[in-house]
Structures are given as structure tokens and as C-alpha cells.
Amino acid sequence: MWEEFDMEIDPAFLERDRCRKAGKAVEIRRTERLVIRETVLEDVPELYRIWRLPGMGDYIQPMQPTLDEELEFMEAYIRHAYPFYDYGLWTVLDGQQDHVVGRAGLFPSELLDDAVELGYMIAPAYQGQGLATECGKAILAYAREVLELTDIHLLTDPENQASVRVAEKLGFEKAGGLYKSNRKLLHYIWRVNE
Predict the structure, then answer these.
(1) Which of 36, 56, 65, 189 is deepest in the core (most CB within 10 A)?
(2) How far apart are CA 132 and CA 144, in angstroms?
(3) How far is Cα 87 from Cα 115, in angstroms, rounded to an integer?
(4) DSSP state, residue 25
């Protein structure tokens, strides 16, 4: 029966699946200064602290109202989202100190049909060093090489000039705008160059 299907299972996918089933975080990418890996519950208090810093929650999806609720949410997210999609929002670590510096990754768009979005949040102490761009390049390479995605979307508030600059440095092109809760968002698309 299986001979009828010309399927080849990717060994890297099987390794990611094995790691997840063993309760280990999958490392997504290493860059010169960063490690991007799936989030573990031990990361959540620091990610929550970063999100609560002044200005950090202005332009990104909100976290849960309390740390306990965020821990509960992330426990389910880790268990279900990573294996189902084979991507998600990941923890970004300083490659030297293994310290949480932010969160970035890919997620199914809530506003665009059948689209995957890129999002990122870098702690204020680490901003202005090009880390969001470095992280974004690594994630886009992962999206292209591992996930075989052909386009990634990015939605950002026009007032978030830091995010607009990162999108442009990453090679995203403007695709117009749209509204969410009466708030204008800029829409950018990154496409794989064939």
C-alpha cells in the first residue's frame, strides 16, 4: 500500500518531532550573536517582563493578563502549536550569555487569508544593535530552506518606524495597508527569489 505514495519524509523534520516528543526545545537557527529556539516555560517570565516594559506592548500581540495565565497559555502553545505548524513564535537568546533578549518567529495571520506573518520583539536593552534584522534574516532563511515557504507577510503600525526599517532591511516590499480595530497597519510581503 505505501508503495503507491511517493513520499519522502524529511529526516530533519523527524528530528524536530523527536526533540519535541522528548520535551526538548528545537533550535531553529544560530547567528553570529543570537540563538533562536523554541520557547520553554523557563523563558516565559523573562519574555513577560520584557513585554510589560514601557512601549513594548504598543505594537505587538498582547500576552495574557497575568504571568500565571501566560504560563498556562504557553504550556498549551508549546505542546500544540510547534508540532502542528512546525513553526511559531520562538525565544531569541544572546548567543554568548544564553540570556533571553526577545521573541520572534512565524505565525498564521489573523488578518490575511492563508498567510504566514513574521513578528519580533527585542528588549530595549538590546535594541539599536541590528539584532532584529539579524534575527529576521535567520528566520526568513529558515522559512525558505526548511519550511519551503515562498512568501512571508509583515504587518506593522506606521508609527513603529523601527519595525518599518527592519522590514525594509530584510527585503520586504510594501503591499498596501489594512485596518484592524480602526487602526491602520502597513502590509509588507517578502517573497523567495526563484
Answers:
(1) 36
(2) 18
(3) 13
(4) P
Residue-wise pLDDT for 106-159, tens only, equals: 999 999 999 999 999 999 999 999 999 999 999 999 999 999 999 999 999 999
* Residue type for position 164: V
Beta strands of 41-139 (E only): which ranges?
89-94, 100-108, 116-122
Residues 73 and 81: their CA atoms lie apart, in Å, by: 11
φ, ψ dihedrals at 25, nearest 5°: -75, 135
Please list, in sequence order, all residues whose beta carbon lies within 8 angstroms of the beta carbon of residue 138, skipping any fewer than 6 positions away.
28, 29, 30, 31, 34, 36
Torsion of CA 30, 33, 187, 70, to 10 degrees: 80
Helix (H) or strand (E) holding 156: strand 151-156
Residue 10's pLDDT is what? 81
Q: How many CB atoms lie within 10 A of CB 152?
A: 24
Contact call for residues 132 and 152 (beta carbons, < 8 A): no
Q: Is 184 helix (H, G, I), strand (E, B) or coil?
A: strand
Residue pair 29/142 in contact by the 8 Å Cβ criterion: yes
CA distance linking residue 112 with residue 65, whole number of Å: 26
What number of residues does the chain have? Answer: 194
Q: CA nearest 16: which of 35, 47, 42, 37?
A: 37
